[in-house]
């Protein structure tokens, strides 16, 4: 691994003033990047689990805060191919995510109650893809601001109406 493939990148913990620079190899795949950086960030920020959001997204156009944008997904695409010439300008948000057990418990409670996790009034009847979470009603799902799943923050690619 040559040192000229390594650059220092700024990482900021969302909704705090905590940040740290890390050396990143731009020849890593996004999968390697997530795995390696997650371990370092969890250790350095004393967190249980995290996901990363790049600051190069255009979610401000849709009025979604960059910090609430979908997380980077693992893939075999190299960072240099994903970000190209912008690689030296990129920065990442660190978003803590709850332990899986807490997430599953909350999901089960919401499903058991059959109430929308957004309005807490209507019954749930929409499944988001690709995460397959059943957590909101049709009314809340059709809000144009609803671009990410409220449970896992994955970008929503499709909505399926179900009858519970």
TrEMBL record:
<dbReference type="InterPro" id="IPR001841">
    <property type="entry name" value="Znf_RING"/>
</dbReference>
<dbReference type="InterPro" id="IPR051728">
    <property type="entry name" value="RING-FYVE_E3_ubiquitin-ligase"/>
</dbReference>
<dbReference type="Pfam" id="PF13920">
    <property type="entry name" value="zf-C3HC4_3"/>
</dbReference>
<feature type="domain" description="RING-type">
    <location>
        <begin position="116"/>
        <end position="153"/>
    </location>
</feature>
<protein>
    <recommendedName>
        <fullName>RING-type domain-containing protein</fullName>
    </recommendedName>
</protein>
<dbReference type="InterPro" id="IPR013083">
    <property type="entry name" value="Znf_RING/FYVE/PHD"/>
</dbReference>
């Amino acid at each position: 691994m040559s040192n000229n493939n390594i650059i220092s990148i700024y990482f900021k913990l969302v909704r705090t003033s905590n940040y740290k620079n890390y050396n990143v190899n731009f020849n890593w795949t996004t999968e390697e990047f997530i795995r390696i950086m997650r371990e370092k960030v969890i250790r350095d920020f004393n967190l249980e689990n995290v996901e990363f959001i790049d600051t190069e997204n255009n979610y401000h156009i849709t009025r979604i805060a960059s910090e609430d944008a979908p997380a980077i997904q693992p893939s075999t695409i190299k960072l240099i191919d994903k970000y190209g010439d912008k690689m030296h300008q990129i920065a990442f948000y660190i978003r803590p995510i709850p332990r899986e057990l807490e997430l599953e418990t909350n999901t089960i409670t919401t499903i058991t109650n059959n109430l929308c996790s957004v309005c807490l009034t209507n019954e749930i009847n929409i499944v988001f893809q690709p995460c397959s979470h059943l957590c909101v009603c049709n009314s809340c799902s059709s809000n144009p601001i609803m671009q990410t799943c409220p449970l896992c923050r994955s970008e929503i690619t499709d909505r399926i109406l179900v009858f519970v």
